[in-house]
Design brief:
about 15% strand, Nucleotidyltransferase, domain 5, alpha/beta, about 35% helix, five-stranded mixed β-sheet
Length: about 300
């Protein structure tokens, strides 16, 4: 019987199971190699798959074509990290298991690292779970809505008109996936192109009476409106409860877990909650594998704190 890491699929229901399944660096490394390359190792420098040599007990690779050396971590969120992959796997499991997120302070205690290290790890994980690249348009019934995130509202006016708020726009396929992102303005000029980009023309749009959505019936198969200003929230199958439930979960994470999300990093937190909801129906092992499949893409601390 082969001992390759895919010979026995990972099964775990708790953090302890993760530790048992990946007890050392070798087991973690071999599993990640399988997820990343499926036993057909590719040079991270030149892309060659013709001949790759294993050296230093399999921890290091050397490409026969370009002669350069690399490890399975190079070009991923794990690059230049001194932490063992076991701690990374633990952090990923914890990250995915908490519906309202986990703070860097709590994660630092759970896996015995500094708060600064835990903060950087969480942002690297968010970097990996970005789903903005999804190109398949949403279809069927699509709920659209916008919300405001940030400090307390002062005075009168809609929340997204407040200078201390950041606007977030979302689309949710009825009983399906959600896509959300921050926007600078909430008007038709900004929101309609986002809807056109991510939604099939054959879809039916559900929204509230906000003026930015006027005219969508001319571009899509249908557009139904619930009039919140008249306290109408459901009319048969016409509602936006799905996307509003996503906002409620996101804000519980904001106020209850993170307490504050900086404006420059807000999209990363949106990505986090988006990924967690979109992967809620698959098993924990499958979610870990899915996250590792998206782990390519280095994120340095310098670049992270410099992002605007």
């Amino acid at each position: 019987m082969t001992n390759r890491p895919d010979a026995k699929k990972p099964e775990f229901r708790s953090l302890l199971d993760v530790i048992k399944r990946f007890p050392d660096e070798k087991s973690c490394r071999e599993f990640f190699e399988h997820i990343r390359w499926n036993h057909k190792i590719a040079c991270v420098h030149c892309g060659c798959t013709r001949k790759i040599y294993r050296i230093r007990d399999g921890k290091l690779f050397r490409c026969a074509d370009c002669g350069k050396q690399f490890t399975v971590r190079v070009g991923t969120i794990f690059q230049d990290s001194a932490l063992p992959l076991q701690k990374w796997y633990m952090a990923i499991y914890i990250f995915m298991a908490h519906k309202k997120g986990i703070s860097s302070v709590q994660l630092s205690k759970d896996i015995a690292v500094t708060q600064k290290t835990a903060w950087f790890m969480l942002h690297r994980i968010r970097h990996a779970v970005r789903t903005r690249s999804l190109s398949k348009p949403l279809a069927g019934i699509i709920e659209v809505d916008e919300t405001a995130v940030g400090g307390k509202t002062h005075g009168r006016g809609a929340g997204y008109c407040q200078p201390n708020k950041t606007s977030v726009f979302g689309l949710k396929q009825r009983d399906g996936i959600v896509r959300a992102q921050t926007v600078k303005r909430v008007n038709g000029t900004t929101l309609k192109p986002l809807i056109r980009k991510d939604v099939s023309a054959h879809a039916i749009i559900m929204s509230d009476e906000f003026g930015a959505y006027h005219g969508l019936d001319k571009e899509f198969a249908g557009h139904h409106v619930v009039v919140h200003s008249q306290k109408e929230y459901v009319r048969g199958s016409v509602h936006t409860n799905g996307i509003e439930s996503f906002w409620a979960l996101f804000k519980r994470g904001y106020h209850g877990t993170y307490h504050q999300m900086s404006r420059k990093h807000l999209d990363k937190y949106v990505d986090e909650f988006e990924f967690r909801l979109n992967s809620k129906d698959i098993t924990d092992p499958a979610r870990l594998s899915l996250m590792l499949k998206h782990a390519e893409g280095e994120l340095t601390y310098k670049n992270l704190i410099a992002q605007s």
